[in-house]
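Session log. Operator J.P. requested a structure for one protein chain; no other inputs attached. Running the standard single-chain path with token output.
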Amino acid sequence: MKSFLAMSGAVALGVAIGGAVLYGLYTASPIRWVSTPSGSVAQIDYQTFISIMLTAVTVVLAGLGFVVAVLAFIGWNSIGNRVSALATTFLKAELNDGGSLHNMVKDEVKEIMYGEIQPVDFDYEDDEQTETEQK
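Structure written below.
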């Protein structure tokens, strides 16, 4: 699919450039190709020739910019799809038992669940029992 889009973009760009060059040569050439209805030959001056050529270059660059934008969008989508697939594969492998991410999450959960629990002071309880027994 990508090669087809690249090929069609190259063909479209070639057609645009060729058409612009031929149109510029046809209309701006000092050779007398065009005859007017009155039978006289149309002439073109230098400023008109430059305007036509600059317009042709502008049209070609606009077409090239459009092709590059389309290819960039397609490329960005393929990069995003590839990154998504690689991230999914990585997370599935790491979240299985024994994976480093699995162990890290398990340790964090233990810390959150049991981190604030204080151990029971057995010495304190023994001291209370001995005091009550002595009385």
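Operator note: Residues 96 and 110 are 18 Å apart (CA to CA).
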